[in-house]
Amino acid sequence: IREGQAFADSEFGGRVTEVNYTQIPTAVFTTPEIACVGLTEAAARERGAVRIYRARFRPLRDTLGGGQHRVLMKLVVAADSERVLGVHMFGPEAAEMIQLLAVPMGMGATKADLDATLAVHPTLAEEWVTMRTAA
Hints:
- The chain is α+β, with helices and mostly antiparallel strands and 135 residues long.
- It has 5 helices and 5 strands, in the order H-E-E-H-E-H-E-E-H-H.
- The chain has helices spanning 2-12, 41-47, 60-65, 94-106, 111-115; strands spanning 26-28, 34-38, 50-57, 71-78, 84-90.
């Protein structure tokens, strides 16, 4: 979609527009979903020191409702600048969250920016802004 928009803007809109291929949100629509945006942990380590933040849990709605979903969330953060380099998730609603997290990542969000965001409780998404300890 973005490539088509960039082409139309460049060819017909009078604005030369380029697509940023470094942060492509990606999702696999399995049950549960798998999604990511940005660098993998391995690719980030090739560029320098990183901090990894993880959350592994069973969602409250499954705990109370008898569901069996498990969730894994991971933030890959540059050790020096604290910039979020990668976001990875395995669990319900992963695609929706990755699409939204691609926006602040594209703006250069840091771990401190996520930490300063108020959490909506109880949601899966609150984990992104409450991870405090690097793995």
